């Protein structure tokens, strides 16, 4: 699954940048073939919250899956919850 790979890449980005001040570029976790790994500016603390919530994904606006709940909307990205993606946590 592309979503799992993207989550792993984002976890590694988080591990390398969690002490940085300011936003870091993370990848959209939608896994859609046309996404082309869209880069999203997110603070590490916000991404830590995503990691701590099973089923939460970081996606670009408009990349959320049908039926996914938008948990939080920020400038340039969404945090969505999708029960089908809970295994990614």
* Rg calculated over all Cα atoms: 12 Å
Structural class by sheet pairing and helices = alpha+beta
For the secondary structure, the number of strands is 5
Question: Residue ranges: pLDDT <50 for 5 or more in a row?
Answer: none
* Number of discrete domains: 1
Separation, N- and C-terminal Cα atoms: 14 Å
Count, helices: 2
Largest sheet: 3 strands, antiparallel
Give the rounded overall mean pLDDT: 88
Strand order of the largest sheet: 3-5-4
Helical proportion? Answer: 25-40%
Written description of the protein model:
- The protein is an alpha+beta fold and 89 residues long.
- The protein has one domain (2-88).
- The chain has helices at 2-17, 44-52; strands at residues 23-27, 39-43, 56-59, 69-74, 77-81.
- The strands form 2 sheets. The chain has a 3-stranded antiparallel β-sheet, covered by helices on one side.
- A hairpin with a 2-residue loop joins strand 4 and strand 5 (77-81).
- The longest helix is centred in the first third of the chain and has 16 residues, at 2-17.
- The chain is globular.
Task: Lay out the secondary structure.
Layout: H1 2-17, E1 23-27, E2 39-43, H2 44-52, E3 56-59, E4 69-74, E5 77-81
Keywords:
two-stranded antiparallel ribbon; alpha+beta; single chain; globular; 89 residues
Could you write a compact summary of the structure shown?
The chain is of the alpha+beta class and 89 residues long. Helices cover 28% and strands 28% of the residues.
């Amino acid at each position: 699954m592309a979503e799992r790979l993207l989550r792993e890449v984002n976890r590694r980005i988080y591990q390398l940048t969690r002490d940085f001040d300011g936003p870091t570029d993370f990848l959209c976790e939608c896994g859609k073939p046309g996404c082309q790994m869209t880069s999203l500016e997110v603070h590490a603390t916000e991404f830590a919250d995503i990691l701590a919530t099973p089923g939460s994904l970081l996606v670009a606006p408009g990349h959320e899956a049908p039926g996914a709940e938008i948990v939080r909307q920020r400038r340039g990205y969404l945090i969505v919850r999708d029960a089908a993606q809970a295994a990614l946590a």
